[in-house]
Amino acid sequence: MTGEEEKLHIRLHIYDTDMPVVIDRADEFTYREAAKDINKAINAYSEIFKGKKSDKEILYMALIDITYNYEVEKMKNDTTPINDILSKITTEIEDALK
Fold first, then answer.
1. Strand blocks (E) in the chain
2. Rounded distance between C-alpha atoms, residue 27 and residue 89, angstroms
């Protein structure tokens, strides 16, 4: 399978909207889990702020929460410091062997 055959047309229910998306077939589970996470965050903020904040503000709160968690995880997985240390050690070893 190539091209369009590998794509899948699905609908994700986000808050009060069905979102049609075209995705790689292999990514379906991840997209569906992402939709669940989005709805979970929106529902949590809705319980606290419904009637006190606009729907738009609640959506932004959920977006900030999700993105914050993403950034925290991204920093945990940042291998740049490790790669820098390994590069320095490799250089020192190569210099010592010359």
1. 7-14, 17-24
2. 38
